[in-house]
Amino acid sequence: MDDVQRCNGMISSNNNYFKSSKSINELVLRLGQKSFEEIHIVCQHRDAKHKIPRSNPFLIQADIKKHINRHDNITNMKFSRQGKLIFSTADPVCAAQILNLEKIQETPISTGVTFENITERFLIFDIPTNQQLSELADEIMNKNDMEVVELRRFVKLNSTQEFSRVRQCLHCYEFTHATRVCDKNICPLCGVNHEGQCQGPEKCILCNGPHSATSKICPRHTHEQKILEFKCRNHLTIGEARRLYTQSSKTHYSDAAKINTTAPNIEEIVNQRVESIVQNITTKMEQQTTLLIEIFKKQSKILCNIWSQYSTKLTLKIT
């Protein structure tokens, strides 16, 4: 992420952008409960006419000591090429104190945090556009031990789709693979491989209808869109959704969901087989243990008889 400037109060959000309502200081202090290496705080001049002077580092250090009582926990201090002053520390409290700085050597400054080394960025696919990002952030935080700092939605400009866009190969116009793995070169208008401008009538290579292969009125496009909706609603992979949905051309979402619940549960089958194997091993071990006990009893009886005979002879000899 870019450097995030210090903010006070609530941060507004909309359906395409969400930012945590917690202040940067509060987010930094929460790092005390997490595992991280260092926090980098960026200080830059607030006014372009008054830049932070590149003076002797000891003078800057002396000025910092006046305002930060945990200055001993600052592990590094340096100027960037853009004239920004960057502090590094592994102490969240020290970082929060640096964020509260308003001046360095009488120069008004603004502060921010570089989140790159203390946060993770990842993509979540196929989130319906009608789902509020604030609700998604709450769900992520409630189900995971993490704090959501920022969410951005990547959608096509002016798109009103409730679900993700259908992905189509731009070489053969099928929906089951990506463009980069396709070596065909078919015209989307007439469905024929030719050079130059298309002169033939429109004919869809997917359904043979009188339209281009990229048209949204194509039944195949509608079919794929419904598969994608089914995938999003039931949290399936695209392969699972396509297999379940296309089992019958008249399958509805509720029927497909029933098929999904009655489909063989691989994990359950594996667990049953493991339990069966463990039971067999346990039974064999019990049988072997019983056999060893019987052998031990017989050996003990034989030894007792031998000892009894030896004791009798020894008594007779003594008498």
TrEMBL record:
Domain of life: Eukaryota
UniProt protein name: Pre-C2HC domain-containing protein
